[in-house]
Amino acid sequence: MLKPQFDREQKIVGTFHTHPYKEGWLGITFSGEDFASAINTQENVSVVHGGNRIAALVRNEKSSKLVDGYDIIDLADALLRRYYSKKLIPFEEAALQMNINLWTIHELAFYVGAPDGQLTLRYKP
Q1: pTM of the entire structure?
Q2: Do residues 52 and 27 touch, judged by C-beta distance below 8 A?
Q3: Torsional class of 107: left (φ above 0), alpha (ψ -120 to 50), beta (otherwise)
Q4: Is the pLDDT of residue 107 over 90?
């Protein structure tokens, strides 16, 4: 699980990281680990770049304050399996559907777009 390191005097505002290409998948947005880390470190903004897609989670006053990281990881994995099990949609779209569930549950605003374009608000609690 991602555990950003910072001094006690510092306040983390947000993070940015990339998801490498895996098995040819592009556009993979947040993982369960990413959600847990963003929530538990009280990040205001978390951004991930996954090839042909950039996504951002933005905290607000309604967002979850603290979560059990392993519960989110288990839920994310279960949702991903459910959406991808029949292989009716590409894996990256199944991952996006999993993200939709998690940002709705934890009331995080969510933006998505192409790396060379503007991010579009997809959900706001």
Answers
A1: 0.83
A2: yes
A3: left
A4: yes
